[in-house]
């Protein structure tokens, strides 16, 4: 009974684009993707030494130019075959933090959990490198975000 009560006291974390992100959506040859974060007490920066979640979602698939040489966007999603990623300090080397994305509840959504080490600085800019594979096509991109030391 106490286990059930304790789980009902936890609030549901909502993934969001945070103010310190360099961009929330990334347009690539493989599609348009969103990057969102969720963490207890998340504001405009990810807190160090607290677990957080990164959500990668494919918003749309970009197709090749048609006969009239115009690129079209489809809302249907071709399956992503692999997502790999890591975090690294943008201006200070803190090593590479590997991320392991798993398929989320919704098609085209991938979730990774991570934790950032505390830096000697109050704030630090991190770079999230993401590589997406769809069939034989691969695309790598990055998103910067800021962490706040507790």
Structural write-up:
With 150 residues, the chain is mainly β. Helices cover 5% and strands 47% of the residues. The protein contains 1 helix and 11 strands; from the N terminus they run H-E-E-E-E-E-E-E-E-E-E-E. Strands 1, 2, 4, 5, 8 and 9 form a 6-stranded antiparallel sheet that branches. Strands 3-11-10-6-7 form a 5-stranded mixed sheet, with no helix packed on it. The longest helix has 7 residues. The N terminus is likely disordered.
Tally of separate helices: 1
Portion of residues within helices = under 10%
Distance from first to last alpha carbon: 33 Å
Give the C-alpha Rg.
17 Å
Low-confidence stretches: 1-10
The percent range for strand residues is: over 45%
Number of strands: 11
Instruction: Give the helix/strand class.
Output: mainly beta
Shape estimate: globular
Mean pLDDT: 85
Could you state the order of secondary-structure elements as H and E?
HEEEEEEEEEEE
The biggest sheet, with number of strands, parallel, antiparallel or mixed sense and barrel status, is:
6 strands, antiparallel
Considering the chains and any ligands shown, give keywords for the structure.
150 residues; mainly beta; 5-stranded mixed sheet; 11 strands; 5% helix; 47% strand; disordered N terminus
Summarize the structure in short:
This protein has 1 helix and 11 strands; from the N terminus they run αβββββββββββ. The protein has 150 residues and is mainly beta.
């Amino acid at each position: 009974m106490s286990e059930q009560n304790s789980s009902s006291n936890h609030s549901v974390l909502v993934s969001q684009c945070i103010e310190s992100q360099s961009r929330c959506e990334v347009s690539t040859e493989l599609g348009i993707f969103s990057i969102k974060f969720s963490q207890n007490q998340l504001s405009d920066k990810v807190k160090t030494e607290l677990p957080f979640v990164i959500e990668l979602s494919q918003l749309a698939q970009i197709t090749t130019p048609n006969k009239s040489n115009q690129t079209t966007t489809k809302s249907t999603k071709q399956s992503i075959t692999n997502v790999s990623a890591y975090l690294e300090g943008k201006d200070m080397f803190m090593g590479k933090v590997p991320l392991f994305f798993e398929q989320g509840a919704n098609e085209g959504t991938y979730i990774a959990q991570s934790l950032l080490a505390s830096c000697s600085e109050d704030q630090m800019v991190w770079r999230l490198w993401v590589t997406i594979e769809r069939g034989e096509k691969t695309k790598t991109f990055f998103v910067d975000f800021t962490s706040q030391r507790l």
